[in-house]
């Protein structure tokens, strides 16, 4: 099948090229005009006259596009109850999202999470806050979408089949976020929106503000634009975390190897987010043919979290569980003598993203030249302060994973989790961590195209990128006296610990209330940094450090045109893109107390053909065919071989500089029927054959260099684990029921469904691929009143492999609602409700197809907002 796909891609590319080159001048039209659907400059005008207008504009863009794509317009984003870009994109056919702390963070397209995210065709670098890594994001390749306010963009476009002219790097597709440009507006425009946001469990009302303004002067040849947004939200996430089912050996009666739980950790997160975004642009029409643009985008996400947890770690020796009950070779109930740990932790991770760009575009008599250069930067300064308490001795605990939301846990013996005397001062700890990270990228590109008198457009270009990253970690710790910790103790109230998670487990226990000043100063005094000129005064933790450099040179050639075959008009493009990548990464090899700097290098060249053809079977019915090869470079964190040992969780993570970029050979057939200005029925069949797919591989073992106590550690590293095939289809409809009598003629529907069946060469589904996903959105717009109810669903997906077995993230769904009313043409009010069914949207992770073998569970709260918007 893979060889057929490769031959098909090459044959279609060649056929489209031949068709484009042999067009009759009388039939050929302006191909360059059609090709602009992929050009961000064409996606700039913002329509804000209602749901119908936004859907009509999106349908027009999709119809004229030179490739398979979907788009959300600015007014559509503004009408949805979505606080960031990821949550807006979940409404698109074939797009699935991953949520962290109750908000969307990253997207998958047609089952693949390796998606390139652009702003106006440029990379926006950044870091993401994580609860746990249920699905791998492409850290360092683009900003986490939770950091980007959705209101800063004019349109959100999802490209599912590539053009040779587009930057490589999206195995599943490319998401392009388009900022508005001032010369695209016909008149000065200003708007402002204010909201109050209420989080139900946290019981707080917090603000959100958005402002936008643009105007032109100097005979409309100079335009300026400024947009800004600020959001504040405190939320609560209740969770069971950190578990895995790993092989343990049992002797005696019922001897054998059973997969046994590792850790039962019950924890409560209170997460404080503030999100700030600013976007500005200046445009100058130097001549009718030449336009110069300077623009910038700044985004800052400050995430602070307070965490309290109670954990019970099972022993790693043989026969860890007595009276064990097994199902499918999983130990789901029994008794063990475990280690009890409680802790209070504060964690702050302000992240910033900067993007500065210059663009010049010249168009005259069929010739188009565009030069673009930009600088992108992302930073993080993460600090963690934690005070842990540990029981004086092993504690007997009886657990049961069956028929409950999270496993029950009953403690035996004399241990009292609320009594300070039950905790051992020799194992209590004060620890301060700091992580400083910088990502930056310089990119320049030049694109040239020429349309012949016959209507054929030839284009080519080159792109050079210099990407760098640096991560420096620091960690100091101390064992304080019992008396020293007394002022920082706190009793967790059973009534308020995980109130929305039913079950029997320790709900009242001693935790701690760390302060930054105490923990940082105390840990630093115990283990100071001997290098006064280093980036932090804490002790270097260089097992996590890396310095990364990657340089890429890419070029492409493409031909496009249109004509007729028989009586059927068509538009076509074909081309090839060649990308050469060289990277090096410096890390430390730690053996005992000796650290040695090691440099790893890698280089590779990818040749990526692509071709697209669209047939206008009738004025309203289109058939598209596309074939291409796409690739995705591994994330920077995955490429850094540094080894990070977490002494609390006994986990070891690291990267692999020898990772090859996965390459997908893919084909698409899509059908689009436009029956009315804003109505559309669409469907597509897709196939992807992926080589060198990357996934985390989890094993266990000991390493006395990392852990002198010789305890069993869980190791996780990325590998090119498999080849894989993905096949599926998607269908969608958007329709207003104008034929109904008043007032029901304002009703509308958006519905889409995606089926994505994936399998690697071991027979397992791919990481992050949900087989079934769908959206159901009910609309109503009549006069000044509008409303929508949006339901989103995706089923289970693999998130990692443990000892060769897949671990899954379970099915989840979300229900959101929005109501709006236009008081006047300039002023409107809105009410939004998000995550109305929290238990349905809860994230659960489990081992090896068995939902009873729970690894984690997290539930987020409902959120409501009300606001007013004015536009002039």
UniProtKB/TrEMBL annotation:
Membrane topology: Multi-pass membrane protein
Pfam families xrefs: Plug (PF07715), TonB_dep_Rec_b-barrel (PF00593)
Keyword terms: Cell outer membrane, Membrane, Plasmid, TonB box, Transmembrane, Transmembrane beta strand, Transport
Any one GO cellular component localisation term in the record: cell outer membrane
Cell compartments where the protein resides: Cell outer membrane
Coiled-coil intervals, chain numbering: none
Family to which the UniProt record says this protein belongs: Belongs to the TonB-dependent receptor family.
NCBIfam families, per the entry: TonB-Xanth-Caul
Name used for this protein in its record: Uncharacterized protein
Species for this entry: Niveispirillum cyanobacteriorum
